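Two proteins follow. First one:
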Amino acid sequence: MTARVFAEGSAMRIKFRCLPGYRGHVPEPRRASEALPDWVRKMPAAATSPTRGGIDVPTVKRCPPFLDAVREGIVFPLVTDLHVRGGEISWDWDLPEVEGRLTIESPIGVHAPEQLTGAPFRVDREQFAIKFSNFWAIEAPAGVSLLFSHPFNREDLPFRTLTGLVDVDAFTRGFVNFPALWVDPGFEGTLPKGTPVAQAVPIRREALELEFDVGEFDEAGFAEQRAFQTALSEDPSVYRKAYRQKRDGRGRDEASDL
């Protein structure tokens, strides 16, 4: 079961804590619904398709499942500009000195390729394993974990964050860092501060025994399925209008509301 973050009437309080003196220097986690990429906002709601006989077809901007995934949960931003030149990553960033600090202050680290031995990931000099540093300890309510992953539908980014599940109701004083693969060896330039490097969705750890019921539609179910397909062919937005559930201030009917 997925717990909705900040949902009206059922708010879930997620606590974020940084080291003394770091606040204001380290970008704060954000609601994903407040961190949509510019290309989603700018893309058209429809585009002409030569492969469909020149008719206008809706883009993913009119696809509620696509948008709802992008808006779900929490995003963690890159803490400073990363400059990529000739296969090297550099930065110019200073954090305040904290007496007794036992954590690193580098915004990024590197994983040894051997740590991925046996995994089907290509890791070599061109596509290497990195680790984005996170400077926020996270505390969720009892029974809640966070599922961390690559920012949803963000194939424009030159890296791919690996997916992991962390019990942040117990692991409340450590920092969850974000391992990733650098997948674009041709990238040159600056990866700007604030770029989402991970997206997290709260998951309730409730005992759940899955029971599969696999079969064919009966006559009534098949009639209902045909009726739905007919409605969908007449109005491609039928899911958005009749089935989509409102969540976290979303559920708006028009792409122009983004």
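Second one, unrelated to the first:
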Amino acid sequence: MAWNEPGNKGQDPWGNGNKGGNDKGPPDLDEVFRNLSKRFGGKGNGSGGSVSGASLVIVLVIAVVVWGLSGFYTVKEAEKGVALRFGEYIGEVDPGLQWKATFIDEVTPVNVQTVRSIPASGSMLTADENVVLVQLDVQYRVSKAKDYLYSVVDADASLREATDSALRYVIGHNTMDDILTTGRDKIRRDTWDEIERIIKPYELGITVVDVNFLPARPPEEVKDAFDDAIAAQEDEQRFIREAEAYSRQLEPKVRGTVQRMDQQAIAYKQRVILEAKGKVARFEQLLPEYQDAPEVTRERMYFDTMQDVMSGTNKVLIDAKNSGNLMYLPLDKLMQNSQSNKSASAKSKPATPVMSVNSTTHNNSSMPLDGRPSRGERSSGRN
């Protein structure tokens, strides 16, 4: 007989020997399932206990499936995912379809390819105690997603403050003329270097891509004067460029002229040397003849020289003492013959050897330096 049948006065195996006592024992499992079934809309009588248990299992399975499906997510191509497990960093997630444990893991996507920009501007004091209005635009990209999210509270705000500080530092160490005119590129590079120096200890996970130094403006009170100064400096640079271009254009011509003059000098040198050698050769040929018959050779050379000299003149000499009547002279024929004789002699005969004769007869006392016979010899020749 079971312990709980009517009429059984045995002891309750759970220690509940007295129904009227305070010790009720452990709860009935069937009653627990019935209560759950009632809550989920089931009936709590008869064999509904087993049915309600199966329903609970189904509900739990559905919940697990929903929990598993809720963990799928996608990281875009330009992004990196930063994964945390119970708030602790566990790594970066690559682009693509991924899964995480919902309520356990947390993934924050960060765009690491988009180039972002932060502007900076304001009125700043220069090294020469002038006030200038400057504008700067910093372009950057996220290089480390974890540092960008968790190294500082707001990486963008930190970069903005670093940019403003670097810009004021660089502007304060340059003059206003450099800021407005020729020193703009140097200021841009110095500002870039100063920004990187400031943000390096904070490890913001940011890489500065470019720094654009926009045109600065002087105060409105002196704007016209500075515009004139800028225009003058631009004209100066333009003139310098034009002079350099002219120099580059003129240099090849000058070099060509120099080379041409060198070649002409070399040719002239060779020509003079060859002519001197030719004169020396003619002198060597003439010297034996002169030594054999000096008078005949001297007279022959005189006649040849006078022929060459007089052939180029257009004057006609007449002895007025011996001829009492003026005869008609065909001057035009004489001129034509003179010119034809001159051209023929220039083509057929070499240069006159007067210089050679002078050089050979310099020490001869009977012949003057010009190669002509003395006055007595010419008078005896005419007689």
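SUMMARY FIELD: Residues 302 and 315 are 20 Å apart (CA to CA). The longest strand covers residues 131-142.
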